[in-house]
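Can't paste images in this forum, so I'm doing it all in text. The chain is below; anyone willing to post the predicted structure tokens underneath?
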Amino acid sequence: MLERARRVKLLVLDVDGVLTDGRIVMDEEGREVKLFHVRDGHGIKMLLRAGVEVALFSGRTSEAVKRRAEDLGVRYLFQGLHDKVAPFEELKERLELEDDEVCFVGDDLVDIPLLRRVGLPVVVGDGVEEAKRWALYITELPGGKGAVREVCELILKAQGKWEGLLRRYEGV
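Text version of the structure:
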């Protein structure tokens, strides 16, 4: 599994259930409110800083997700997807990547086609059992509560980039 993480050049994240805990909260005017974990966001920023691209895929369309992607510096956002395979293939071609250079993190049945395709398939700890069957790695933490950070650290450590990032924070 670490050998596969070493090859990752693109991390693709499902949104609902992975970057969030999967709950949909509506305000009085019917607008969706999304809760994101700050450590997941920091993990994404560290990964981007280390030269690994990040993409967000969502079956829903949300202004909150668009703003979060912008805040984090994520350049690739695909929303309103009924099929995640087509945009995955398009993005892979645009970035000139192979399947084995991609890590995908999902949580549910709709994620199985991508889990079956990528080099490093990951399912969050509270994902459905059917999706977990296709995962090479299952996070300790649940979606929306640090699972993405866990995956980011796994990739950074496998690629030998974690210690350098850590030294920046330690002031060494």
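The chain has a mean pLDDT of 96. The chain has one domain: 2-163.
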